[in-house]
Amino acid sequence: MVELIIFDLDGTLVDSCEDIKQALNYCLEKIGISGFSTEEVKRMVGEGVNRLIEKALKARGVNLPSNELIDCFVNYYREHMTDFSKAYPEVKETLEQLKGFKKAVVSNKLTELSVKTLENLGLLNYIDFVAGSDFFSERKPSSVPIIETIKKFNTTQDKTIIVGDSELDIMAGRSAGVKTVAVTYGYRGKELLKDADFVIDKFSDLLKIVRKL
């Protein structure tokens, strides 16, 4: 019997790639570095802003201190985080139908930005707890955020599932001892999702899994 559902945010509940791309490219182009396409950014997101900037600089063969770029990204993104972002199809309706379950968002995005994204897109009131990369001592793919969230809700691994779009979510879930659900419509190719316990093509398919468990 499932009591707690832990969701990833970007690529799972929300398609935010365009806004992430805009913020990244704004900051890179300001210092004369060419930007990236949406598809390229999709492949780089998932590990938090620091890693995103590191990967972008590496891809362009540039060796620069990343702190100023990180600050630039966070400041720009904070002002424009939902210019283009939207909830994926069926997310709101499905969360509505999951009212009887405890629901958490555990993201590698900063907590403040995760909360604001959910709030701006009308999803925050469906979620009981939000934790970003700065909330726990480690971030996904570590099991720490998952285990700490389970403790917070005073439940157990066998009554928890994690839903995400990347191998990071699957690794975090598996090492925490919880069932994993991968969504195929997010930012990672299907080949990276093969270790998940369940794979779904649309968000509403989650209802069947939760009922089955």
From TrEMBL:
Gene3D superfamilies: HAD superfamily/HAD-like (3.40.50.1000), Putative phosphatase, domain 2 (1.10.150.240). PANTHER family: PHOSPHOGLYCOLATE PHOSPHATASE. This is phosphoglycolate phosphatase. Pathway: Organic acid metabolism; glycolate biosynthesis; glycolate from 2-phosphoglycolate: step 1/1. GO terms for biological process: DNA repair. It comes from Thermodesulfovibrio aggregans. Belongs to the HAD-like hydrolase superfamily. CbbY/CbbZ/Gph/YieH family. GO terms for cellular component: cytosol.
